[in-house]
Design brief:
Layout lengths: L35 E5 L6 E7 L23 E7 L1 E10 H6 L4 H28 L1 E4 L14 H13 L24 E6 L3 H4 L5 E3 L13 E5 L2 E6 L3 E3 L9 E7 L4 E6 L5 E5 L11 E14 L5 E6 L3
Parallel strand pairs: 1-12, 5-15, 6-9
Antiparallel strand pairs: 2-3, 4-14, 6-11, 7-8, 8-9, 10-11, 11-15, 12-14, 13-14
């Protein structure tokens, strides 16, 4: 009779399940951070409309002495429509899985769907920003590609473009404090980037890391630092396009946003709903299949095309 060794034990015998479930990766979500948050009333149709009044034109001609009235002036009025849509997904779980698992599989899936809804909202906003915003191609870098790597001079050009269109910075500055190694931070726009660009920020001489801010008030976990009038936020789900540069390299698309530049609209009463359908529903005659899912209604819209720019760059 042969000896029983580790090689001929049944597979389940040498295995012990750790009672601590491993963490699910949770990427930083940055695109919803600076969106205008609005609600659409239930029963109010599927179109949410914003109205924008332009500035009145200046009339620099003195009024005539004969009492004659000048020509009337008016504001240019533009409406922006956002259509609400439903998004959802579900997963099927057999009752056998629940019966043999030590963890609560259904509860774990509800947790996964909460993260799924948050990521969906963020990515839908990212897509509308990338598709609708005007584009700036970095060209002050030295890597010889088109676009080049991101530089402080490129960032300043985008800031100048936004300021020239009266875009309002979205974050207040930080005054200097008596803290060794710290630096004041200006009023800033928000630059929403992929985490790959952190290596590029490290090469910008004017870059201020968050740990060098005068204080941590209002600093978010996804914020990497600031350069000139831009505070930089990074995410593992940041936008990029492979093989998109002149040299066939990955191009990163980083929206620089200002106050009231884009919006996220939720429908009242139709926000994220988590759905559980027990076994035995429909034609599940043997009560073997249960469903877990989520559904939500939202819209996203650019509110002012002049107040958001997408910066396209490569890496050095």
């Amino acid at each position: 009779m042969s000896a029983v060794t580790i090689n001929n034990l049944p597979a389940q015998v040498p295995n012990t399940a750790n009672q601590l479930l491993l963490m699910t990766e949770r990427p930083d979500l940055i695109y919803k951070l600076f969106a205008v948050e609005d609600e659409h009333p239930e029963g109010g149709g599927d179109i949410h409309t914003y109205r924008h009044y332009g500035r009145l034109p200046l009339n620099l001609t003195p009024l005539p002495n004969n009492g004659q009235n000048p020509a009337p002036i008016k504001s240019e009025v533009n409406d922006f429509n956002a259509q609400l849509q439903q998004f959802g997904a579900y997963s099927l779980l057999t009752t056998f899985v629940s019966a043999i698992s030590q963890e609560d599989v259904v509860a774990k899936y509800f947790d996964l769907y909460a993260q799924w809804v948050a990521e969906m909202c963020d990515q839908l906003l990212k897509n509308v920003l990338i598709a609708s915003a005007s584009t700036y191609y970095c060209h002050f870098g030295s890597n010889g590609d088109d676009p080049t790597e991101l530089t402080a001079r490129d960032i300043q050009e985008v800031v100048t473009r936004l300021r020239g269109k009266s875009a309002i910075p979205i974050m207040n500055g930080k005054l200097g404090e008596m803290r060794i190694g710290s630096s004041p931070v200006r009023n800033c726009y928000a630059l929403l980037c992929h985490t790959d660009l952190e290596t590029q920020f490290n090469q910008i001489g004017q870059f201020t890391y968050t740990y060098n801010y005068p204080n941590y008030e209002g600093v978010l976990e996804s914020e990497y630092g600031a350069v000139l009038h831009a505070r930089c936020f990074t995410s593992q789900l940041g936008a990029y396009q492979d093989d998109a540069s002149a040299d066939g390299q990955r191009v990163y698309l980083s929206p620089m946003v200002s106050m009231e530049s884009f919006a996220h609209i939720k429908m009242t009463g139709q926000m994220a709903q988590y759905v559980y359908t027990p076994a035995g529903s429909g034609q599940d005659y043997l009560r073997r299949t249960q469903a877990v899912g989520a559904i939500f209604t939202q819209a996203q819209s650019i509110l002012n095309q002049n107040w958001v720019d997408t910066v396209r760059c490569t890496l050095a």
